[in-house]
Amino acid sequence: MSSDFDFGEFLDESNQSELMILCLELFGVLTEFEVDHDKLETAKIEILNNQLTTNFEGFKSAISNLSVSDRNSQINSMKHINLMVDTLVGDPRSAKKFMEIEKVIDGSIDALIKSINSADDLSKLVQVYNFLPNKKEVATVLSRITDYELKAVERIEYLKAALSENDVEVQLSEILAKLADNSAAGFISANVADVLQERGVDFHIAGLVTKEALENLSNEQLKSNILLMLNFSEDVFTTNPEFLDAIQADTYVLTSTSGIDQDTFDMLLLLKDGSRGDIFEKYPVKVKEYKVYK
Q1: CATH code of 268's domain
Q2: What digits encode the pLDDT tens for the residues 86-97?
Q3: pLDDT band at 106 (very low <50, low <70, confident <90, very high)
Q4: Are 209 and 98 members of one domain?
Q5: CB environment 127-165: b (16+ within 10 A), e (fewer)
Q6: pLDDT in the model for residue 1
Q7: Is residue 1 part of a domain?
Q8: Do 204 and 246 fall into the same domain?
Q9: Which of 122, 146, 181 is the last residue of a domain?
Q10: Do 197 and 290 form a contact (C-beta atoms < 8 A)?
Q11: Cβ atoms within 10 A of the Cβ of 22, count?
């Protein structure tokens, strides 16, 4: 979160809608099979020049580093855009733009599926599906499949065929089940799960952590950095918009799932080096801190 967060600007729903429209425009550009350099740069500059963008440091950083030649930067930006679209309050203008981008995706998704030949291609498709309200479950299953590092050509072709079926979620769930049966590691290696459980994380939560969530973390960080479980209502993103940026800027999100109470979420966070455990005290959230691994 920026130290100069402007609540007045943010609470103006027309400002939020304007930023959402710009985010949707950029997402549409990134969704295309061949990302157009000029369109990307134009949409990128529009977002960076928006008055609200400066309030979200993590989001601003992702967009600033976006490049047509860097697939990882594109996927990272798509993740941040999905978060922003879920957070911002829209209006009829942004709803209309959302429908336009849905049509763009409908026109490009077959090409995206047919062109899959790497983990990056799958990760991009995960973000595309996560953008679509009726495809979020597909995105979740596909994301878990990518944790198994499908490198064999025949496996990728099998996955592409499943993505083209009408019952895609059923097909993907079957693939995921087979991969899990054939893998001794599951989503994460047993020793990593042991570390989390030794720190006090429940077994079913530790089992939701994916390899992707851990890819930039060392064993020492996983053992020693502050580990928190946050429980909060979905309303917190609207009432405390800087909460999202605090998560993006100061933590690694290991996993999230629905809370016990209705309309609540549980989020397992590992704080970045140097971050303090009290950073969430000012927000209407419940915080549980786990012990250090010994």
Answers
A1: 3.30.70
A2: 888 889 999 999
A3: confident
A4: no
A5: bbbbbbeebeebbbbbbbbbbbebeeeeebeebbebbee
A6: 46
A7: no
A8: yes
A9: 181
A10: no
A11: 25
Domain carrying residue 278: 190-289
Residues, the chain: 294
- For residue 149 the two structure tokens come to 């590092």
Cα–Cα distance list, 213 to 11, 139, 206, 222 (Å): 32, 15, 12, 11
* pLDDT surpassing 80 at residue 6: no
Total domains in the chain come to 2
Two tokens at 160? 């592409």
- Token representation of residue 161: 């065929």
CA distances from 217 to 62, 202, 211, 276 (A): 19, 20, 10, 18
Could you tell me if 170 and 30 lie in one domain?
yes
Nearest-CA neighbor of 67 among 29, 102, 19?
Answer: 29
Instruction: Tell me the Cα Rg of the chain.
Output: 19
> Are 269 and 230 spatial neighbours (Cβ–Cβ below 8 Å)?
yes
